[in-house]
Amino acid sequence: MSTYIKYLLIFLAGIFLTYFFVSQTKDNNKSEASHTIAYAIQRLNKMVVAEQTYANFYSHKSQNTYLGDLLSFDKNVLLKVEVKAQASYNLNELVVDIDSANQVIHIKRIPEVKVETYPDIEFFDMKQSTLNQFTNEDLNGIKKRAIEEVIKTINLSNLKVEAREQLIYNLEEIYLLAKIYGWEVQDDTPYAQELENKIKL
Questions:
Q1: Tell me: the pLDDT tens digits for 102-158?
Q2: Would you say 99 and 125 are in contact if contact means Cβ atoms under 8 Å apart?
Q3: Three-class SS of residue 30?
Q4: Among 18, 83, 162, 198, which residue's Cβ finds the most Cβ atoms within 10 Å?
């Protein structure tokens, strides 16, 4: 075998080994990126909550009169009403597909914000007479009205804005990882433009 052919075979073997190691490195990097992104999305599967607490005192007074206005029997009650208001996104309902072959993260669905209120009532003072007592129906009606009064003071818009800001903060991780690994993000949700603008900053 001539020296030329030997050098040619060595050269071709070198090219083959280089291609093999580069391919292996690319596959390993792609696998690492896929696992990292999948883990990050899994960690997002939680409840994002903005919470505020509102409190107020509510008083009720009424009387029964007899013999015209000659006799009257009063009853009154003072309540402390506390309402915890929550705006939340349940990211367990987040729908994301990871296309490792094409290096694409496809965000298909983000759940809608959910607003809930949790009232707590404490009776501070109650006075009643034998001829004018509170019934269970009376007290339930008073509690309902007291809760409604506090709920009217809740600024739901601010609460939703706060929850949205927390949601965006959590979703940024997906975009940042995609940028680091050179993946593409396809976002079908209303938050796409806002997230893209944040990552560009």
A1: 989 999 999 999 999 999 999 888 887 777 788 889 889 999 999 999 998 888 889
A2: no
A3: helix
A4: 83
